[in-house]
Amino acid sequence: MDAGEVSEFFKHKSVLVTGSTGFIAKLFVEKILRIQPQVKKIYLLIRAPDNASVNDRMQKEVFEKETFRVLREKHGGEFDSFISNKVTPIAGDVSVEKFGIKDMNLIQEMQNEIHIFVHSAATTRFNERYEVALDINVQGTKNVLEFTRKCPNLHMLVHLSTAYVSSMKENIITEEPFSMENPLKEHVTLDISQEIKIANDRLRELRSKNVDNRTERDAMRELGVERAKVFGWANTYVFTKAMGEMLLIDQKGDIPTVILRPTMVTSTYKDPFPGWIEEAKTIDAVTVSFAKGELKVFPNDPSGIVDVNHGRIQDLHETMLWNVSMGWATPEEAFEDFLNGLQGPFGWAV
Predict the structure, then answer these.
(1) DSSP state letter for 182
(2) Which UniProt key words apply to this protein (predicted)?
(3) If you write DSSP's letter for every residue of 209-235 in order, what string do you get?
(4) What is the phi/psi pair of residue 277, to 5°?
């Protein structure tokens, strides 16, 4: 299937995207609007207290960003009208049942309209408070599943995960699902409901002691890392993302699903234009510090490979589009790992 066929698939289709204020989902929204202006509707679920706030946040954190420069130039003075016709912001929170939306008519409209659901919302802080990470990365995935079950025209659920759910594994990492019966460490069984109970019990205990906010925050962060290491994961982020995958595979039933697992994400390679990046995160902080001359020494193995998605962000979005248009659905076909170490190795020695 070529790019034209992928573009044609999205004609007159409706898409719901979570996490659109984030880097990857924002680029995905831009690409859909650019390659297929006849997309029917894109719903953006954005955390906000009300409709006025959600529209303001969408404008500031999505469409006013430089990544929409090409699309803005294409439509000129009609850009705002085009966005208004094609994109509907929805105030909601994935960690809450029905995303916290009270308007049942709106929920029914969305469920009847949606053909593709792209779930990109997540907390990516490595040492996030355990109960917060569970709410967003695990319970949020469950809420997405419950919502998509009631979408009669759904073609595909695309779930954005991370390659680091594989944690400390070495050598060849296979594209296969995790299960609660087989976490990374052998001879242990993971029970997601029990993890939620552990987090809630600890939070109640801390609050019963009237500890200050900082003490509570630090204790819940420490609990997340502690529980992650019990089962073989390095931090709370990758642990809860792995649990989100487990829940998804266990409960998705016949919902057509694709799970995408990118490694570290850097700037765009050429689409919509080269070099766009938003904030300096993960490996970007090292690069920026080196470029400014602030980082004088960085001990490392010169022969080591840094697995970053610099040129493959475009590949990631194209694969998202291609998987949706092809309608992949079975668990054996539901995984795409985006690792650049073999295709385009980038070494520490520069």
Answers:
(1) B
(2) Lipid biosynthesis, Lipid metabolism, NADP, Oxidoreductase
(3) TT--HHHHHHHHHHHHHHHHHHTT-SS
(4) -145, 155
Q: Are strands 264-265 and 257-262 parallel, antiparallel or unpaired?
A: unpaired
d(CA 65, CA 70): 11
Catalytic residues: 237, 241
pLDDT of residue 37: 94
Which residues, other chains included, contact 183 with Cβ-Cβ below 8 Å and sequence gap of 6+?
Answer: 189, 190, 231, 232, 242
User: What are the Cα distances from residue 279, in Å, to 65, 112, 143?
Assistant: 12, 36, 29
Pairing of the two strands 116-119 and 257-262: unpaired
Q: Say what the pLDDT of residue 184 is.
A: 73
**CA dist 126 → 3, 13, 72, 241 (Å):** 36, 36, 35, 11
Q: What is the number of other CB atoms lying within 10 angstroms of the CB of residue 291?
A: 9
**Residues ≥6 apart with Cβ < 8 Å to 172:** none
| Tokens describing residue 350 | 């520069």
Three-state secondary structure call for residue 336: strand
Q: Residue 198 belongs to what H/E stretch? A: helix 192-208
* Structure tokens belonging to residue 115: 């053909």
Q: Token digits for 256?
A: 């057509």
Whole-number Å distance between alpha carbons of 252 and 239? 20
Selection from 91, 20, 29, 4 nearest residue 60 by Cα? 20
Q: What is the pLDDT of residues 288-312, one digit of tens each?
A: 777 788 887 777 777 666 656 554 4
Strand partners, 44: 17, 89
Rounded to the nearest 5°, which phi and psi values hold at 335?
-125, 135
Average model confidence (pLDDT) across the chain: 84
Q: How far apart are CA 42 and CA 83, in angstroms?
A: 9
The one-letter amino acid at 273: F
Give the number of other Cβ atoms within 10 Å of residue 221's Cβ. Answer: 19
For the chain, what percentages of helix, strand and coil (3-state, to nearest 5) are there? 50, 10, 40
* Cβ-contact 122, 228 below 8 angstroms: no
Question: Is the distance from CB of 185 to CB of 90 less than 8 angstroms?
Answer: no
Q: Which residues contact 310 (CB under 8 A, 6 or more apart)?
A: 266, 267, 269, 340, 344, 346
- In whole angstroms, what is the distance from residue 321 CA to residue 317 CA? 6
